[in-house]
Amino acid sequence: MTAERELDAVDAPTTGRSGGSLWRRIDRADLVRTLFVAVCAVVVALGLTWPWPAVPVVAVVGLVVGCWPIAAEAFEDARHRRMSMELSVHAHRDRRRGCDR
Questions:
Q1: Per-residue buried b or exposed e for 40-60, using 16+ beta carbons within 10 Å of the residue's own CB
Q2: Sign of dihedral through CA atoms 33, 70, 79, 96?
Q3: Per the record, which residues fall in region Disordered (predicted)?
Q4: What is the pLDDT of residues 28-55, one digit of tens each?
Q5: So where are the chain's domains?
Q6: pTM of the entire predicted model
């Protein structure tokens, strides 16, 4: 989600308890991606590990689709030398693994 859309979602007025504005504030691409990752998780939890049990492609595809926006934003922030939450999380994860030699 871009910064403009995030600000629009935060600043959007609410319409009370009807929940009408909540559905307008949800980014459809994020919703579809989240549902896709959830379906991948359920498929793997049910034991459908196609084509190999050691490397379930469904799980790998779900991880790539789910993490792509975060990884892409962290890459852009690193390229432009900006610190963001995404880049900070990736840097922290790498330090915990001992990758900051």
A1: beebbeeeeeeeeeeebebbe
A2: negative
A3: 1-21
A4: 999 999 999 999 999 999 998 878 888 8
A5: 3-97
A6: 0.62
